[in-house]
């Protein structure tokens, strides 16, 4: 007890932390409040901009047509100046790359096509020099079927690795249920001749599921995490979380989840690196996130808000905000330490699986009307710019991304409005090389042929859309995005504050108010393609002037005692209450 009091005392004086929570406590009692509020500001993941990229398509330094670590190092200044705080690096370990690297064959290595372990370390060093953190994909639900563990497991029942995977002697009754890639995948249990048994795979057949019931597997995964944390990563984007923790022998379509497994993984990370984050990929219904964030605040720090994302696209498609507002409200109540990660597009299809069929059809109609734009019976395999098709709505979408409650995640290339290549299979449509300039291969590579084809035709070809041209144009999307990122960082209220949706009585205009440490923001977005007028009651902002943070304008209470807002089509306005500076 004495020790504990002494420790508490020292920690208050010198500000060090006693424990090392990945996630600290959830809402606390009044007596704990000030301690908890103090810690909150150290939760770096709440006020950062995350940028997702794949090495393959970012920058090729050695002319073999595939991007690599040295290429990425060359472009770090670009990311730095754009305002990126955190790079989320897609899988870079050795892999047959049948699923964009999400099929790993050695967890501890670096795929030689991207460079050596030395190149990886150089990259980490260069990122750190610029104050950038790196999080990496942790893909442990499954391995590649080429992984030596699986190869050995197949050989015999007595193999040490047999029990590292999930087997069934008989064909399970739901062998063709619960597919993640319907239309492409035929089954979730496949017979392996060598093994003489069926193995489980929620994803493609070349991705056998690891058996998380096996403590040896758990220990090995801890080693993998420990290894990469030692190498300097700031955390992980945890792939396929619900599948990692599901009981593979339970009902495929309504599986049992073992949250204790997740807790153990996170506890380990917390012990190894106190401020490491876990950004979870778990596309769940509202209410289910509680278990993932951890009821006691001891779960994942960040989770993608898939639910809000799908309803946001519904709002963008229809101009109606009602469902989106409901989705925000439905996902509002999360523990204090937790944070949603907001995104527009990612490296997969735009998943619309949580919309009703009618809603999904409306989004298809607006953004992916042709059959070849749709994928897996639930989504759209297109980039943001061609889907929205106009600069005004693109800006609206980005302004929302930066002003919604949570942490924004950007997909490489979206900051310049890159397009897609629908001739490529499945999700590869949105994985084409970064368009750096109008030089051959978009300035991405000096190879005679690149591994992934560059977009060289049409409105979105690299001749039209590239970084070099946009850098020189003050009105480009690139410069606009950089400006908005800067603004977002000057508005910590968004990442850290409490928020309320203001009642405007408009089907098209969304207004969110943030409160943080006596400072307030009001962000207004018009989803309609027509101009809109809305009013906000004066008491919402105590009658103080509202200072527009994007244009040199102010808004004051009118004679009727309300603030009046005129929004152009797809217009967006950010205001700070009382003055331009934060209190
Ligand atoms: C989710 C990833 O986002 C996706 O790209 C991948 O195919 C699956 N997990 C399997 O790892």
TrEMBL record:
CDD domains: AmyAc_TreS (cd11334). Residues 1-24 form the signal peptide. Keywords: Signal. The keyword Signal applies. The keyword Signal applies. Transmembrane segments: none annotated. InterPro entries: GH, GH13_cat_dom, Glyco_hydro_b, O16G_dom_2, SupH-like_C. Residues 52-488 form the Glycosyl hydrolase family 13 catalytic domain. This is Alpha-amylase family protein.
């Amino acid at each position: 007890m004495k020790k504990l009091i002494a420790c508490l005392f020292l920690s208050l004086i010198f500000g060090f932390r006693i424990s090392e929570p990945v996630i600290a406590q959830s809402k606390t009692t009044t007596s704990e409040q000030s301690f908890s509020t103090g810690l909150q500001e150290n939760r770096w993941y709440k006020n950062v901009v995350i940028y997702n990229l794949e090495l393959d398509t970012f920058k090729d330094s050695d002319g073999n047509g595939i991007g690599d670590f040295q290429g990425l190092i060359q472009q770090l200044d670009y990311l730095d100046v754009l305002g990126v705080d955190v790079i989320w690096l897609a899988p870079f370990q050795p892999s047959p790359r049948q699923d964009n690297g999400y099929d790993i064959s050695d967890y501890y290595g670096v795929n030689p096509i991207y460079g050596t372990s030395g190149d990886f370390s150089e990259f980490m060093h260069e990122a750190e020099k610029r104050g950038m953190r790196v999080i990496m994909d942790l893909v442990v639900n499954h391995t590649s079927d080429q992984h030596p563990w699986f190869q050995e497991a197949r050989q015999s029942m007595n193999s040490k690795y047999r029990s590292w995977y999930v087997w069934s002697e008989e064909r399970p009754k739901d062998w063709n249920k619960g597919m993640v890639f319907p239309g492409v995948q035929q089954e979730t249990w496949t017979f392996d001749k060598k093994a003489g048994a069926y193995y489980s795979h929620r994803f493609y057949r070349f991705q056998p599921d690891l058996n998380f019931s096996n403590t040896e597997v758990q220990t090995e995964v801890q080693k993998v995490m420990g290894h990469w944390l030692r190498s300097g990563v700031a955390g992980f984007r945890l792939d396929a979380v619900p599948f990692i923790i599901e009981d593979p022998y339970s009902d495929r379509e309504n599986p049992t989840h073992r949250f204790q497994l997740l807790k153990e993984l996170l506890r380990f990370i917390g012990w190894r690196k106190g401020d490491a984050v876990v950004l979870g990929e778990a596309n769940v219904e509202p209410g289910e996130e509680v278990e993932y964030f951890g009821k006691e605040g001891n779960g994942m720090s960040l989770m993608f808000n898939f639910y809000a994302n799908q309803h946001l696209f519904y709002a963008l498609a229809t101009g109606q905000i009602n469902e989106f507002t409901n989705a925000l409200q439905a996902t509002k109540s999360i523990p204090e330490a937790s944070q949603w990660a907001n995104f527009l597009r990612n490296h997969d299809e735009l998943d619309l699986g949580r919309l009703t069929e009618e809603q999904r059809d409306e989004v298809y109609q607006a953004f992916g009307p042709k059959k070849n734009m749709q994928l897996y019976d639930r989504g759209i395999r297109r980039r943001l710019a061609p889907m929205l098709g106009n600069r005004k709505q693109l800006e609206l979408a980005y302004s929302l991304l930066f002003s919604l409650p949570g942490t924004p995640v950007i997909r490489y290339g979206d900051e310049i409005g890159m397009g897609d290549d629908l001739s490529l299979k499945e999700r590869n449509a949105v994985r084409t090389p970064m368009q750096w300039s109008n030089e051959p291969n978009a300035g991405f590579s000096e190879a005679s042929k690149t591994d992934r084809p560059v977009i060289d035709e049409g409105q979105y070809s690299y001749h039209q859309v590239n970084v070099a041209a946009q850098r020189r144009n003050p009105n480009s999307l690139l410069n606009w995005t950089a400006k908005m990122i800067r603004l977002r960082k000057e508005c910590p209220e968004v990442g850290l504050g409490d928020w309320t949706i203001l009642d405007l009585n408009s089907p098209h205009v969304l207004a969110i108010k943030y409160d943080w440490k006596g400072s307030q923001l009001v962000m207004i977005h018009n989803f309609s393609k027509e101009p809109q007028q809305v009013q906000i009651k004066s008491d919402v902002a105590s009658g103080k002037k509202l200072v527009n943070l994007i244009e040199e304008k102010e808004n004051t209470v009118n004679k009727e005692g309300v603030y009046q807002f005129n929004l152009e089509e797809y217009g967006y306005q950010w205001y700070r209450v009382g003055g331009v500076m934060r209190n």
